[in-house]
Amino acid sequence: MCMSKTSGKYQSYSNSLERQSVIETPGRTMISNGSEVQRSLLARNASRKVTRRDFSEDFVFGTATSAYQHEGAAAAGGRGLSIWDTFTLKTPGKVKDNSNANVSVDTYHRYEEDVKLMKKIGLDAYKFSISWSRVLPGGRLSAGVNKEGIKYYNNLIDTLLAHGIEPYVTLFHWDLPQALEDEYGGFLCPQIIKDFCEFVSLCFWEFGDRVKNWITLNDPWTFCFGGYVMGSFAPGRGSSSAEHVKGSIACHRGTKSHACNGNPGTEPYLVAHNLLLAHAAAVDLYKQTFQQHQEGKIGITLFSKWFEPLHDNELDEEAATRAFDFMLGWFLEPLSSGDYPRSMRKLVGSRLPSFSKEESKLLKGSFDFLGLNYYTATYVKSASNSPDVEVSYTTDPRVTYTSEEVPIGPKAASDWLYIYPQGIYKLLVYVKEVYKVPFIYITENGVDEINDTNHTISEARVDDIRIKYHQDHLLCIRNAIKAGVNVKGYFIWSLFDSFEWNEGYTVRFGIFHVNFKDGHLARFPKFSALWLMNFLSSKLAKGRTKRQIEDSEEHNPVKRLKTG
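^ that's the sequence the OP posted. Answer follows.
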């Protein structure tokens, strides 16, 4: 860790981490270089196992999915189109294998058997999202409520609870109704705030008597970056979207100084602004109208990588601070202080929207808990923009990301995912130190492998890399808890292999292998599912191997967990 005298957020955190590293290494001589202390600590921890007993009894273990990626049944039960339906239909080349999620894992029809699998593994919770266009096909109440959609989620929630599994429900996981995108540009327009509140109010009313943990937004950063900077996610706007962004969006409320024409230097900031205001309005609605008698909690889930300075110098440390500000701080700073990070105000200037006093007040502290999605990390170094550089969210931070040039860890299947378990520890401590967040869930953590279509089912079930990934990350979470971070839960992404956005079906994240070739979507537990069951269960004998568990007649998870 760098030892310069930078006064920024990263250096403040760095000093804190160095103190903790020394405290956690009793009997060692004080080492002047903090990074050496960390390496020693991590090497010692690598030889130690983590068990369920390392976490409190009320610590929640679950898995996570999302509606568009997993439900399938795109044309069933009165569901309306979402922007992902349109995106995969009209621009199939944006998805690697030209696929879509029209069927995917079909949890819509198979939720009962899927919940039984969760129960057999021993999960405490299941994080899923509600498809806005399945309950409100036209996007708002005046266009009609789809009773079939309401019935489906009621049945899912009731089935989960009947099996002792707590539902954690996300209200928006990127699948905006196409009707609202067509009408006024969706989250580019402030009108979305009113319509979002109608949608969430319906959800609170219909499901809030049983759902006690609500998440307003899942990872708004990826929605903004993929959908409005890179054009690789729905609705496909941004730097690579010229072929299908036709003219300006017809929103005339609150955007008069910013053209909505696919500009990656303006649109992502407008969308993030409206996402934040929609979140704050939804939380206020819940707290004012529903929370007292429903006795639930409401929060938000944010994504962040860990950013490590490439060199031990002040410039790269400051670059790391800016990288955090433009990813995590873009959303967490307004939720903590009521405004965007100072570095964003300085570098983005007039392109960054402003909050009114009333909006800032509504935003500040608008979460009962924070969800963090962590997968990966990267080295960063300082960059300077030339006068002719394109004005864009990607160039505004003045940061160079060096994941390919200098990888921070082993590469997984996806181009963006490098394995660095230490990052989850560092990120948790950073959030606690910088933002004073009192209560955190890890709402997504996982690793993918290439979908090798030549593998047999038996070969595809062997995923030792996934077992090690989760073991190492849980060990680091345990250490963060020991360092004073209040982490209360861990959700694995994902329960099943599924449609992975612009990666399509070319990668697999699930702890269950799904056979997409047999026409039945049969589920097979990977070794990671067996490991998780063993981890969570006190009934299995200590020290038994995967193969011993698998071959046992008394405890045969393959026979017990296989479906289809």
